[in-house]
Amino acid sequence: MPWSNEACAPQLLSLHSRAHKPQLLKPTCLEPVLRNKRSHRDKKPAHRNKEWPPLAATRERPEGQITMSAAAMDAGNAATLSGSKEMSLEEPKKMTREDWRKKKELEEQRKLGNAPAEVDEEGKDINPHIPQYISSVPWYIDPSKRPTLKHQRPQPEKQKQFSSSGDWYKRGVKENSITTKYRKGACENCGAMTHKKKDCFERPRRVGAKFTGTNIAPDEHLQPQLMFDYDGKRDRWNGYNPEEHMKIVEEYAKVDLAKRTLKAQKLQEELASGKLVEQANSPKHQWGEEEPNSQTEKDHNSEDEDEDKYADDIDMPGQNFDSKRRITVRNLRIREDIAKYLRNLDPNSAYYDPKTRAMRENPYANAGKNPDEVSYAGDNFVRYTGDTISMAQTQLFAWEAYDKGSEVHLQADPTKLELLYKSFKVKKEDFKEQQKESILEKYGGQEHLDAPPAELLLAQTEDYVEYSRHGTVIKGQERAVASSKYEEDVKIHNHTHIWGSYWKEGRWGYKCCHSFFKFSYCTGEAGKETANSEECIINDTIGEESVKKPQTLMEMHQEKLKEEKKKKKKKRKHRKSSSESDDEEKKHEKLKKALNAEEARLLHVKEIMQIDERKRPYSSIYETREPTEEEMEAYRMKRQRPDDPMASFLGQ
What we know:
The chain has helices at residues 9-17, 31-42, 53-57, 63-87, 97-112, 132-135, 209-212, 230-233, 245-273, 275-281, 283-286, 295-307, 388-403, 414-443, 446-449, 454-457, 525-532, 534-546, 553-610, 629-638, and strands at 319-321, 326-328, 466-467, 473-475, 502-504, 507-509. With 652 residues, it is mainly α.
């Protein structure tokens, strides 16, 4: 109950009058506050259950101030209570440890299925396994903190609005001029309300409808702005009117009615003429046999004719229709063949278009199969079969011929282009043949072109041969030894072994006598003994060093020429070194002159910069001559660099 300072005035006066006996009065208005204070003292201090700041502040104050702070506190409580009633929202209460434990136990029981799940405002169960950061409602969406998942669902204000499947543009709207009076805001030229004068498509009138008020044009029908989704844009039947099919149904009904009337009329005529009576009395009809030109056969033929009236317009595979007869031919598609869309059931494989019944890509592309091994590799093969490649070559020839000045075009004059292309190919082949013949006549080599192919030269057989692990032949024909270009099994000068059968110290010889000379005579075992003796080896080495081959006049002349060349090279090197030294001296002199000229130029520039700008001569430092290499080097050497920390020491 709210209380005021007036209610507590007597108690406060008595407190001040009895100042010599300090005691705390307990007015009736402070009883709920003090009771709340005792309950807070009894509880243990904790960070979750803290005392209210006004109560904590009253503990260390005098008695008079305690009563004043309590009164102020109750006034604040009254204000907050009245404000909370106006907002109709409860203040958030801190959950005790016991309540928090019960809440967690309830969540566990719900997850195990022992307790019923939470229900939202629509009566739907909330999955207890949903995490708290998903199921908890933000304060800015629903302050009431009710259990719901509405904030996780698509918000209706953010959803795009699409047109329904039944909405479509109106076609064939009749324009009837009904208005007879000009309306405000209409077109000043024709009087229609759907556009203005600047957008009018009618002929500009001499006097507009605004002033005449006659011949008011009808309002155009404004088509609605339809906004379809993904499926609506690709709906082939959107905008189709099923009532259009009723025209075909009515046509068939009229044809059927006409057939029945004609059939009834024919029966009446035959009954009147007596043909049906004669057929009924005939012996074949009594035995159940039909005559070749009987009425029943005619009826069947007429029915077939009626059925085949629209047969020419029907596109049915496997049927050959004629106006008089129907012949069923062999079906165009063998039923045992696999359909294109059943060859690979992977949705990421080749795309099958149901409207055109086409599958352009290879359905076995991702299966790792060779396109030549499979029975079907897609419809793209049509692009590279027939005259497709020749057509592309002809088009390329037409472009090249047009660039070179020939007036040819594939679509405009195909016959001329075809004849020109054929003559071009013949001339090109003749030119290549003439070029080939001229090269062979000049350089030769016709015998290499007439050689048999490599398949015949390196012939292979299919004879069965078994080999062991070491490569030896177990069964079958042994491997043929490759023939050498050198002579084989040729023994000369009484040698029992061929040349090259003996090897020693990097030299080839004969195994029979250990001789290292190819055209020597065989000495047998005696030659082996002499060759193996050390004295013979030493004598041979000394003899080889001492004996020199006599030189011919040609060899002596060649050595003399080599020595002369060496002398000339030495002279050239000497001249070159001397010329290089002379060039260096000249460059040094030029650089010295360029440095002096650069110093003079810098002094001249310094003098000009000291003169006033208005008194300087025009283009005083401008030169049209290109600087030489020495001048550029002098400029680089004399250039002042302000960023260089040693620039101030250059002049010293």
